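G., the chain you wanted modeled:
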Amino acid sequence: MATIPVQPETIQSSEMLVRRLYDELHLIARREHRRAGSPMTLQPTALVGEVYLKIQHRGDWQSKSHFLGCAATAMRHVLVDAARARLSAKRSGQRESLTGALAEIASGGGEDEELVRLGEALAELARHDPLLAKLVDCRFFVGLDEVETAEVLGITDRTVRRWWVRARAWIYDQMRTPAL
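Predicted structure as tokens:
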């Protein structure tokens, strides 16, 4: 992933960082859109816009890594909220369009439930161990590698590998437990 260097003394606002890192954020959003595989998932540009709206009023960015870590968490929240909204619309019998409804039926439509369950599992993980939850945001939702994740979290890449195994096991355990 190509990165643009951001010096701490030049960090002023979310708007400036989004402008400087837009291509990187858009690449991350495009990857998440492909991973979701659902035609109803937010388009990459809309996802970046929603992330910006969530973080725009912050101005205390310590570094590019700090910004990307917070953007990762915001992206997860946006994706999970969008999945919840689609599930809510399904339960109330509303469909955005016939084409969308047919595509959902053809694709199995289970992605939203899984994404919501993942969001709930991560919220629970964040209550138990916030750093593990941040690691999952960086690795899974943003797609950072071990070295980039280590930089964002201020730990070693070896610790990232250990924590990643622990976080995946914890989430697996939470996801296989039936929802109430």
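Residues 1-11, 94-109 have pLDDT under 50 and may be disordered.

Shout if anything looks off.
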